Amino acid sequence: MEYTENQIIDIILKDLYSAGSYSQYLDSKKREISTEMQTKELTKHNIRLNNWKLSIALIAAIISLIVSIFAILKSSNTIERLRELFHQNGIKDVTHWF
What is the number of structural domains in the chain? Predict the structure, then answer.
């Protein structure tokens, strides 16, 4: 079957249009994948950052608890009672760091 010049031009133009459309499709997919990867990287970064924040908050809570316990011990006569108990049992005074 022989094609006319116009038919050949039409076929070439259709092929070029299809190739251009496919190229645009691939470009959009590339952008989509790139955006997904950037989002995943940001999510990983945020998770790491949140882990650090939680670790710091946990350390601060532990320090606060220790300070509170020492404050309670100092405010009551617990230290004096411990010193008396140690003294009665012949144990050297170890409560000086309270």
Answer: 1
